[in-house]
Amino acid sequence: MNAPLRQVPEGAVAVALTVNGRPVAAQVEPRTHLADFVREDLNLTGTHLGCEHGVCGACTVLLDGEPARACLAFAATCGGACVTTIEGLDGDEVAGELRAAFNREHALQCGFCTPGMLVSARDLVLRLPEADERRVRLGLSGNLCRCTGYVGIVRAVMSVIADRRARGIAPQDGAARALGPVGAHAGDGVGEGKAVSAPPTAAALPPVAVEVVEDFIPAHTFAQSFSLAQPPDAVFAAFADVRAVAACLPGAFVEAEPAPGTVAGGLKVQIGPVAATFRGQARITRDPATRTGRIVGAGADVGGRSSTQGEVRYRVRPGQDPGSAVVELTVGYTLKGPLAQFGRPGLVRDIAGRLTALFAANLEARLAGAPAPAAAPPLNPFALALGALAARLARWRARLTGG
Ligand code: FES
Ligand code: FES
After folding, report:
1. From the alpha carbon of 142, which atom of ligand 1 is closest?
2. Which ligand 1 atom minimizes the distance to the CA of 54?
3. In this predicted model, what pLDDT tens digit does every residue of 350-377 receive, in sequence order?
């Protein structure tokens, strides 16, 4: 079927995919995410939108059979994919049993979270060998409910699993696949909360093979700047110490410096239930004459199917106050694989703004003589995203009230 006709926006790209078993061909703006696409172009409004930051799970759909955040996946990148929304599960046996169990166990009140909750729950019912409460809670940890609490929801899901196994219905293949939304790694040891508490060591992680492409063209770029009450030469010199710089950046770690100007390391990230450790290599060039530098690197998600290529160009110039400096950053990046859902430019810019502020504060403290932290804590864009969300709400409120 063709998506309903509406004016094709300039720059739209063609996408062909299957939604709820039916072929769909449409023209979409590159920035349109899958949730907006199914809701507005296909009128499948059962997919709800809550946070639009990948945190609440209200938008969960099945993407090629795996629960995924429709608010973070670009529709244009879903060409050839099979998408199943809650409407596509109308006649589904497991979804029907879950709906009955949700009613029986009072597992919903307003129902806002329920479509996403059912999509995630169905995945658990199909795959978990038994009604294991810990694994059910882990699998549902990416779906937030504001109304009922989780006791009824967990009870409903467990009752359906127990009932089906009692009827001799075996779990499907894929029981070993991680629980939760795509990219979560929950239950496989890579992304569980306990593994996030400390940056990984090289010995603890499998090797990754990445190639640093010096002249790559990033899919997205943005600029940031920050001021420091330190002389420009001191700031530029500090950037030469890559381990010290990494210690100022939450989630970053350095494993080795195999050659001059080359560093091996990575970044550990967690957004709600979705966790990733990107490991790879970077090349660093610096020009003291212009106080500029470039870091270009590539990394791959340990245990996942995502990869990234990125570059940071920086320039340190004198600030307005004597003895102060301004650091100007230009960041370019390309994300591929399931975690590309977190590459939305608005989201990345919001998070990068807060990350830059944290980095600047840590660097300032270090330059002022404070002892370096033993290891930077993991990057938690969830907390950063909540801050970004609060800032956006404040901006909207100010706009609405004319403030
Ligand atoms: S709306 Fe997609 S995770 Fe919240
Ligand atoms: S039932 Fe209201 S948010 Fe879950």
Report:
1. 3
2. 3
3. 667 777 888 888 888 888 887 655 554 5
Whether residue 55 has its Cβ less than 6 Å from ligand 1? yes
Atom of ligand 1 nearest to the CA of 35: 2
- Best-predicted range by mean pLDDT (25-39, 256-270, 327-341, 365-379): 25-39
**Of 57-61, 144-148, 340-344, where does the model show the most confidence?**
57-61
Site residues for ligand 2, CB cut-off 6 Å: 108-114, 145-148
Q: Are 200 and 303 in contact (CB under 8 A)?
A: no
Domains of the chain (ranges, CATH numbers): 13-88 (3.10.20.30), 92-168 (1.10.150.120), 202-401 (3.30.530.20)
Burial class (CB in 10 A: 0-12, 13-18, 19+), 197: exposed
Whole-model pTM: value is 0.59
Which whole number is the average pLDDT over 270-286? 77
CA geometry: angle 292, 294, 296, nearest 5 deg: 175
Our answer on whether the CB atom of 354 is closer than 6 Å to any ligand 1 atom is: no
Separation of alpha carbons 193 and 8, rounded Å: 44
Pull the structure tokens for residue 401.
């009230």
